[in-house]
Design a protein that fits this description.
Blueprint lengths: L17 H7 L4 H13 L19 E6 L14 H5 L16 H4 L10 E4 L4 E4 L3 H4 L5 E8 L5 H10 L9 H9 L9 E4 L23 E3 L20 H22 L2 H24 L6 H6 L8 H16 L3 E5 L10 H25 L6 E6 L3 E7 L2 E5 L3 E6 L7 E3 L1 E2 L6 E3 L2 E2 H11 L9 E3 L2 E3 L15
Helix pairs in contact: 1-2, 8-9, 11-12
Amino acid sequence: MKTFPTSCRHDDAPTFSRRQWLASAAAGFGSVAAAGLAQELAGGAGEGLVGGLHHAPRARRVIFLFMHGGPSQVDTFDYKPELKKRHGERLPFSPAKNLDPGSTGSAKLMASPWDFHQRGESGLWVSDLFPEVGRHIDELCVIRSMQSKGQSHGQAVCMLHTGTDNFVRPSVGSWVSYGLGAESADLPGFVSIGPSATHGGPRNYGPAFLPAAHQATTIGRNGKTAAEAGFAFLEPQAGLEVQSRQLDLLSEMNREYLDRTQHGPVEGMIHSMELAFRMQAAAPDVIDLADEPESIRSLYGIGEEATDNFGRQCLLARRFAESGVRYIQVSTANVWDQHGNLEKEHAKNARAVDKPIAGLLADLKQRGLLDDTLVVWGGEFGRTPIAQGNGRDHNPQGFTMWMAGGGVKRGLAYGETDEFGYYAVQDKVHMHDLHATMLHLLGIDHTRLTYKYAGRDFRLTDVYGEVVHGILA
């Protein structure tokens, strides 16, 4: 049995258990094996679901395509002919209390600059902003009645990523990692590609009070191109034997501290270091796109100026998905926040992501991955149908997100906004409901995935949220 050096011993340390011995021996690889066996017996569940999954899952993983800033629903997937017909007229009801009084002063309706067309066998409406995604409209479940909390980006982004608008809480991906773990022992359960440093920053992919091992491992960052993206400190700084001894020493010191204090977060830090060690062998092959054939690179728009960056991010997302990562968050570099210059800037943003997203959907489908991969698209809110100069203001009262694969109905438009696209009026879906539904599709009851902190049990949806059964296949 491995023991601590005399200098590390404390009389008040508890008995060294078999579990602790497994966790410290051979840089923690004994505990990895035990955890893997336990996870297999639990039906793929992680440490957050001790008794296994709550029901049969429809999805094994999530790819969240985050359109940072809020794309306009009335210019993308929520066709409103009445808005075009009454362009320039006053809104016939009271607008919401938005941040900028100037956006509600005249409250004049603003028609979409883009034409809409019915696409696919489903006949769902798609604007000319998304011609490539429109080719896959029969795969999409378009939720047109989304609602959220928070008129500002900071509030709404936190609500989207953590389920709360004003407190530090674990992100969705951290909850999924905590509940399910990773399918691969050599890769994290949660990866964030190109995360933004603004509007929440690390809080949008952080674990808060969950064990540190469930924070997203980030690849690249906002402001850097995806071609430059990589995991920080992935290259070993010393030989494997030296590094293994370093990790042994760090694990030994941390576990001694954990024995004395029973301070849970320390164990998460230990797991994080052990994972980082294993990733040095596995991750380089996953993030190296050199072996992808030209036909696949072209499918994602890699090599084309407008689409190269997001195309690389989406291709990385597919590679992480097939390698066992449970939750992959992909963030846009361009911000969909057009208070002015809507026509020019929305067109630029859509051009950057349209072909890569269509490529991702096609690639997942042809590999048989779309059936058990839940793809989610959207921003923190939408935009108003009334003008703010030649742009639109924030609108969390009614907006659009869509899902594909992973157990949702195909070619469906769910919910409605009013005739101008301002307020959700039918089959409303709050952000808590979206989170509850995502967990449900992964085999998790959102009311039962909890973590005790500060004297009470917390969950992603707090005390809210209903599964949206109307969109389940």
